[in-house]
Amino acid sequence: MATQGWDPVADWYDGWVGDKGSIHHTKLAIPAVLELLAIKPNEKVLDIGCGQGVLAQYIVSAQGLYTGVDVSEQLIKIAKNRKINNANFLVGDARKLNMSGFDAAVMLLSIQDMDPLDQVIESLTKCLTKGARLVIFMNHPAFRIPRQSGWGWDEGRKLQYRRIDRYLTPLAVPMKAYSSQKSGVTISYHRPLQEYVNSLNNFGFVIDRMLEIPTYKTSQPGPNARAENLSFREIPQFLALRAKKV
């Protein structure tokens, strides 16, 4: 895990996500997460890799008791400065969590920043009560592989397709530094879907719901718009899993 990578880009990330979340958060990620969590009043919810706390206000509004954990001290500082009532933020390593008694946990676009996967899943299972839900929302590992996937156009067939160069091999991909200082490195860990399913199973989780979510985007008007919009609707860009601790 790039434990120092997010501090230098924290201000950029907060500027991009904002108080309510980026357009990807508000249109796709947060609605899916809230649907799968199905929070009941006063349930304790643990947000692992919470960043600057974008999910906190939504959990609190759903009457959940929110705790957010992130390895980045700078992101946690930003989250605390928002002063969200009934939200608790802690600096912590997802591989070494030391909490218990949570009714649900969520990993919102964070699990692909964490490694090794088994260590993270083993750590978080200790935080959850029997029957607790874990919701994971991530870039779709079969269709969005950093630097190994992208859109292509087939002129002969007049269709837009998704190009996948690699899939089964796990990859640790350094990501672009977005801060004004151009410093810091974040790592995106690609894994095939089987690694997530098998790791959850190995540590006592049973997956009971899965959502494959396409982009909200539509093509600009033009001769290729119909084909582009079809591919946007048919090829999912995000994956959401819900698993229960048995």
Topology:
Blueprint: H1 10-17, H2 23-37, E1 44-48, H3 56-61, E2 65-70, H4 73-81, E3 87-91, E4 102-108, H5 117-125, E5 128-139, E6 149-154, E7 159-164, E8 171-175, E9 186-190, H6 193-202, E10 205-213, H7 225-234, E11 238-245
Parallel strand pairs: 1-2, 1-4, 2-3, 4-5
Antiparallel strand pairs: 5-11, 6-7, 8-9, 10-11
Structural class estimated from helices and strands = alpha/beta
Percent of residues in beta strands: 25-35%
For the report, how would you describe the main beta sheet?
Answer: 7 strands, mixed
What ranges have pLDDT less than 50 throughout 5 or more consecutive residues? none
Shape: globular
CATH superfamily membership: Vaccinia Virus protein VP39
Number of domains: 1
**SSE pattern, N- to C-terminal:** HHEHEHEEHEEEEEHEHE
Q: Summarize the amount of helix as a percent range.
A: 25-40%
Features:
single chain, 246 residues, 7-stranded mixed β-sheet, two-stranded antiparallel ribbon, 7 helices, 30% strand
Summarize the structure in words.
This protein is α/β, with parallel strands linked by helices. It has a single domain, classed as 3-Layer(aba) Sandwich (Rossmann fold), CATH 3.40.50.150. It is 27% helix and 30% strand. It has helices spanning 10-17, 23-37, 56-61, 73-81, 117-125, 193-202, 225-234; strands at 44-48, 65-70, 87-91, 102-108, 128-139, 149-154, 159-164, 171-175, 186-190, 205-213, 238-245. A hairpin with a 4-residue loop joins strand 6 and strand 7. The longest helix has 15 residues, at 23-37.
